[in-house]
Structure formats: C-alpha cells, structure tokens
Amino acid sequence: MGDNPVAVGLNLGHDGGCAIVSGDQVVAVAEERLNRTRYSSGWQAALAYCLDAADLHLADVDQVVFSNVGPRLPDGFTGGLDRYGVDPAKIRRLDHHASHAYSAFCLSGAEQALVVVADGSGNDHQTESYFCADRNGLERIGGNRADRGRAGGIGATYEAVTNWIGFDGQESGKIMALASYGDPKAIDLPLFDLVGNQVEGRLPRTHDRGLAAFAADHALDLGTPYAWGEQRARDLAAWVQAQTEDALVGVVEQLVAEYCPTTVCLAGGVAMNCVANEAVRARTGAPLFVPPPASDRGQALGNALHGIHRLTGRVPSLPLADRDSFGRSYSDEEIHLALRRHPMSGLAERHPHRPFTFHRESDAPAVAAELLADGKLIAWFDGGSELGARALGSRSILADPRHEATRDVLNTRVKHREYFRPFAPAVLTERATGWFDLAGPSPYMLFAPRVRADRRDQLGAVTHVDGTARVQTVDRAAHPAFHRLISGFEARTGVPVVLNTSFNDTEPIVESPADAVATFCRTDLDALVFGNGYIAVKADG
C-alpha cells in the first residue's frame, strides 16, 4: 500500500457503477452512462472506465468494497474479481444504508454530522437509518424497527403511490412534479405515524397493491389506476408529497433535538426529492447538506470512501466545492473524431444521417450565450460528467428561460416527456437572491425555493405551477465556463439565468463525445457546444 491507498467501490443493484478514490483523486461513473440503458445494474464497464481514467490496474487496488440492495451479499463474495487476480482478502461488503451515509458525510466537508438515510429499500427491509458521523467513524443510532416491513417506509410508500398513478418506482420525481397540480387535503388520512424518531407507515404491503389494500380498509376512492392525467391522481400525488415532507421534517426535528448536530446530511433516494428537502431546511432550520448522487448512483462512491476509512483509519473528507463532475474529461482529438463521425470515436448512430457543420471558436461560452439569446436550443458539453442524476453544466441542454413556450417545445420536441414536468434554472450565485427566495447556495438542484414574485414573468420556462423552481446556483470558481456563458446571456438579455436540463432524450445522460453527437442528431436541438470551443450546428438550423 503506497502513500495514497487505492479503494474501489462497486454497486450491484440498480444504478450500478464504480468509483475509485485515492488521495484527493476521485473517478466515478454509473454503468448506465456507458451501456446506455437507464437504471442498469452491473459495474464491469464502469470499473474498466474508472481504472483507465485513474491510470491504474487491478493490481494497484488495495481494497474493493461491494454493496447491494435486498438480501445481503454472502460471506466470501468476490463478484468474480478473484478470477482476475484480486486477493479475496481485499474484498469487503458494506451495508447499503452505511454506503449512503459515507457518501453524504464525506462529500459534505463537515467534521461532525447527523446523517439521515431514507430510501425505498436497503438491506434487510431497512428504509430509514440514522448515523452520527465524525472523522473517526460512523455510528448507527437508529432507524426503522427491525421487525417493521419495508412497506412502512417513507420511500416505499412514495413508490406505492407512484406505481398506482402509473409510473415505475424509479420515476418518483414525476410524482413530485405532478403534486403541484393537486390538493394535498383532498384526502384526510395520514400515511405515517412517528413513534419517537421511528417512521411507522400505514400501508400493509409494498407497491400499488399496498395502496389498494389501504384504500379498501378505509373506504378511500383512489380513482382510476394508472391514469396520471386525472385530477384524482394529482390529488394522490399532492397527498403523498405532503405526507412525506411532514414525516421527514418530524424525523429531523426529533434527531436534532436529541443530538444537536452542527450539520445534517440527507441521503438515499428520498433525498432526491428537492421539494421535501426545501421543507426540511425551511421548517427545521437545520444546516442541511444533500449530495448530488444521493440515490443509489452514489453507492459505489460511498463504498470506495468506506474502503479508504478501512485502509487509513480515518473517514476521508472530500468536500465537493459546488461541482459533481467525477467522470473523465475528453481530449480535443476525441471530440474531433466524434464530430467527424469517425468509427474510432465509438459513435454507433441509431438514426437517419442528419447533416451538420462544425467549426471552432476561441470563446465557446460567448457563442453559446448568443445562441441562447437568439432563442436556440443548445447542448453544452464541458469537462467530466456528473455522477448524480441531474446535469449541472457538464452535460446539459440549455435554453432561454424567459418564455413559457420554451418549456413546451423542450418537452415535446427534444425530451419527449410529460407536460407537467418543470425545468430547472441555473443562476449566477452572486445574483441568485435577487431572483429566488434562497436560504443559501443550491449548487446541486436539490432544493426548490420560490421564484420571487416580481421575477416570475421573466422566468416563464423555469417557474413551476406552484411558483417554485429547482434552482442551481453557479459559482465562478467551480464552473468557470458555465458561469461565463450565463454572464454572457445576462449581458444580452438582462437575465442572469438559463434553463438547464440533462443532455439526453429517453436514454441516460450522455457520457462521451460520441454519445453527445448521436443525441444531438437524434433530437431537434439547434447546436452542440463543447467547452473546448468546438461548435456543431444543424445544416437546416
């Protein structure tokens, strides 16, 4: 083991992937970004990617840590890595919720914290776990009762309503958006009880059948199943959203009163609910940190960070500094090959050939700002990819935020998704409080403050129906090129905000230049701008 021990984290469940941590170096990627299939399990391609990006071999690795969801991995589990020369003594397993807790605490930069993990399922029916963390270790201090079924958890309950309304359990974010169109008081029944800090959900079973059984027991009219367009479905969404906020707030209030932490970290899939996060921050006053890969996309990273703890005896601190870019960067040559549609770029086009021209500019952010001010829809590709589920200026689609029609054009022509789903604003950090009711920075789109009333007519494409927005604050030091782009847009329009959504259509967010070119050609985007200066424009645009 050298001066900087090397730990590899691998996640076996949905949103599988790999992370490598060595000293201050972190490389991480989700498997789905490489095989182009959403929510993929697996880690093999991600491991090869991370080893290559870190310029390491398996022989250099000091510790490998696996995690999974559901039944725990058996003793002696190696994932087959022993066949490739990895000493089984170097391979460990980590509890699913502990992995979430490591990723949140280590990325927070705090010296001490309370960590609250809430998701659909961890190991052994865990859905909520609470930890006290410091640089010496993480101690589990509570969570759901061991004999309480998974159906009683916050995440599992939200998932059940999601299923009933007509979406997959991985699509809970759609329910968060739909909730703003419903009445949370249309159903006057609680979904959760709190016994101390323990959550006792009232559904007897998981998924939509559990909600149906609950409705039958209480003579509750759920409306037509799988019909998200009906008003009853909107009311159900509003109901479960409000109940989730109340449960999370109650848990955090109880724990803060007992442990008086200096920082509270939220992690797990429930922590991706930016509306609930905003409620926790506003109603508890707790200093709150939520990592961008709060869902299972962060499992591999949490595992690797745990591996460093085991190797060094200290829990590592790797504060994010407002950026979630753990992917590798791509060279000018790799970008040029993709733009030329060269086979060596890895481009496998699955659409008719669509002509475009490309050239190079000395100031790509300025050109991008001008395109946006002219009403163009552009893709923006800069540096390494984000690990979390939200694009933060590395793999983004950008648009003018001022006109409500832009939202509908993006939903129908580019993203091909439901009309009710909002788009996020990316705002210059130094201008943010003049446009949004922010309590503090929001660099990861994990809070949903209100848009200031006197600014809403200037932000029609990013203001949700309830007057909120999933804000990203953009810091000059963290995102220099993206910050220059937004500043250029402000100079032309007077608005220090751009619409920012993930660079994808129905596939995962793009990873490579080849992915970027393929998605650019397949959609109605007007231009593709690379941070290094390459700019592609549709021939008919």
Question: What is the topological layout?
Answer:
Layout (H helix, E strand, L loop, with lengths): L6 E5 L5 E6 L2 E6 L1 H4 L8 H11 L8 E5 L23 E3 L2 H13 L3 E7 L9 E7 L2 E7 L10 H12 L6 H7 L13 E4 L2 E4 L5 H11 L13 H29 L4 E4 L6 H11 L3 E2 L9 H14 L19 H8 L16 E5 L3 H10 L4 E4 L13 E5 L4 H12 L8 E5 L43 E3 L5 H14 L3 E6 L10 H10 L4 E4 L3 E5 L3
Parallel strand pairs: 1-4, 4-5, 6-11, 11-12, 14-19, 16-17
Antiparallel strand pairs: 1-2, 2-3, 6-7, 7-8, 9-10, 13-20, 14-15, 15-18, 16-18, 19-20
Helix pairs in contact: 3-9, 4-6, 4-7, 7-8, 11-13
What share of the residues lie within helices?
25-40%
Order of neighbouring strands in the sheet with most strands:
13-20-19-14-15-18-16-17
Number of helices: 14
For the report, how would you describe the main beta sheet? 8 strands, mixed
**Rg (C-alpha, Å):** 23 Å
User: How many E-type strands?
Assistant: 20
Terminal Cα span: 55 Å
